[in-house]
Amino acid sequence: MTACKNEHEVPWGINRRRVVTINDGKPGERSVSMACMHCTDAPCAAVCPVSCFYTTADGVVLHSKDLCIGCGYCFYACPFGAPQYPKIGNFGSRGKMDKCTYCAGGPEADSTPAEYAKYGANRLAEGKLPICAEMCSTKSLLAGDGAIIAEIYKERVMKRGYGSGAWGWTTAYHEGIAV
User: Are the CB atoms for 10 and 120 separated by under 8 Å?
Assistant: First the structure.
């Protein structure tokens, strides 16, 4: 969270990534990092009345702050709470939505001052990983090629397990996974 704020100069009150603690202070406490999941069929894009959301060739869901009218439909549609208002106030005074860009900038030309002012650094255009994944001290956040990430996850599951006591798919969704 701090890395994102520093890299993109995100205003106070906006958290493009936040940590949710489950069973706070109790045995089995877990912390889950939440941000935009860059959905294949993004509900935020489906409900936006001005079509300001779009998906890049890399599968990153971005939005245009120039088109956004701040209606908040995306906020209510997103199951992860990714789109956020930059200000607290009455409707119309809260500003245009902000969300995780996966460090991919916005619709402006790559790495321009205009893009940085609205969306922050475009690390993907520079050939870098998103700052959250690069700076994650526990290496819980991964970014990059899907096949490589799947292999890393598989190795972690084989080493750590995915049953009782291990946090993962089976704990979250009460389903089995084939390894």
Answer: yes
| Full-model pTM | 0.79
- Quote the percentage of the chain above a pLDDT of 90: 46
SS3 156: helix
Residue pair 33/141 in contact by the 8 Å Cβ criterion:
yes
Of 111-115, 153-157, 169-173, minimum mean pLDDT range:
169-173
Could you please report the per-residue DSSP string of 15-79? Answer: -SEEEEEESTTSTT-EEEEEE----TT-HHHHH-TT--EEE-TTS-EEE-TTT-----HHHHH-T
CATH of residue 97's domain is 3.30.70.20
* Domain of 116, in residue numbers: 2-128
Q: Within 13 Å and on the Cβ side, how many CA atoms surround 176? A: 2
pLDDT over 90 at 44, yes or no: yes
Task: Indicate whether 97 belongs to any domain.
Answer: yes
